[in-house]
Amino acid sequence: MGRYSSNPAKIGRMLIKKFSVVVVLAVLILSGCATSREAHEQRRKEQSAQQLYTEAQSSMKVGNWRTAVEKLERLDSLYPFGAFSQQAQLDLIYAYYQNNDTESAVSAADRFIRQNPRHSHLDYVYFMKGLVHFYSELGFLREAFAAELSQRDASTASKAFGDFAELIKRYPDSPYAADARQRMVYLRDRLAAHELHVADYYIKREAWLAAANRARNVIEHFPGAANTPEALIIMVESYEKLGMTELANESRKVLAHNYPNRVADID
Question: Is the full-model pTM beyond 0.70?
Answer without folding.
Answer: yes
